[in-house]
Specification:
mainly alpha; 2 helices
């Protein structure tokens, strides 16, 4: 990526907020529970 485009992409798609982090953790936990449930069936 060009030197100017990369920071714009980071600003547009990477959100470093507590709310965003909580959502990611919630999604990962849900995926892990689904995986374990799938292994048990």
């Amino acid at each position: 990526m060009s030197g100017r485009l990369k920071p714009q992409m980071i600003d547009a798609f990477y959100t470093d907020t507590d709310v965003w982090k909580e959502q990611i953790i919630s999604q990962v936990r849900q995926a892990l529970f689904q995986m374990v449930d799938g292994l048990n069936n």
